[in-house]
Amino acid sequence: MAVWLLAAVLAAAGCGGAGEPSAASNPGDLSTGPTTSTSTTVPPTSSPTTTVATTTASSPSTTLATTTTTTAPPPAAGSGLGNGPGRYEVEIASGGLLRRAIVVVPESVAGPAPLVLVFHGFTRSPEEIEETSGMSALAEEHGFVVVYPAGTGFPRRWLSSPAQGDQDVVFVRELVALVSAAVPVDPGRVFAAGMSNGGGMAARLACDAADLVAAVGPVAAAYPSGPCEPVLPVAVVAIHGSADPIVPYEGVGEILPAVEGVVAAWVERNGCAPDPVVGDVAADVGLRSWTGCAANADVVLYRVEGGRHGWPGSGDTSLWGRTTDAVGASALLWEFFAAHPRP
Hints:
By secondary structure, this protein is α/β, with parallel strands linked by helices. The protein has seven helices and 13 strands. The model is unreliable at 1-79 (pLDDT under 50).
């Protein structure tokens, strides 16, 4: 494996400083946008506050017209998200840092709604994964809240490995609590998806926040290695390209687990029937589905034949991210999530 490729793999796994391919440096970017970030340290106080910049509009896709800023105690008080649908940029003090997320509340949300977390890849941003995934439009169609959190550090990343501590797991818990205090959220229908390093973060939540998420959907994920002992069964749907040059399908020794090995471990954890249903959902997309699992926690694997390091359905034709448009990853994820609430 070339040195630069190994560096990218290490970075995606949270083991180094290199980033995933960016639009500025090569044609393999999944979308355009900034690839740098800063982390603001928040001095500890006896009663920390959360500053929330909020904006409301008649539609999540409408140019936002008015902005207000409010201060509320975190994480339970989420009134800063405003009243009604809109696209909000939220800041929350967590772990001594000022963390950021984009929250989209569609007009179609009614009653306690599902919430889908979508994590960006290494060096990426909430804005980029929102554009790449198209999840906001799907949220409007199906009536769920979608949250795009931001990682930390330079380059921006997720601490997806247990060896890196639980800072990001704690942040996600606080963020979900903040949103749930402002918007009616069904706690049995909180789901997590992500791309690459962000897919690894979604997988981390299945292990270490199984009481929070009912199902996860890693896409082209750099899966964390280490112990995984969920307190509850979690349904898993994985999407991965067979020709991924950044996070190889077969894994990278002890650095990155092989995709099928990760899936097999979840089949065992969830007590599923050992023999999957095998089929094709498109000419270049195979499906393996394990059912009969504890607590309806099914396990599904979509293998994109010849697919590289991209989000299916995003229209990416670049050298690095070229993948299929025969299916849309976001639609597959939501179909699975909708069928797998916590019992």
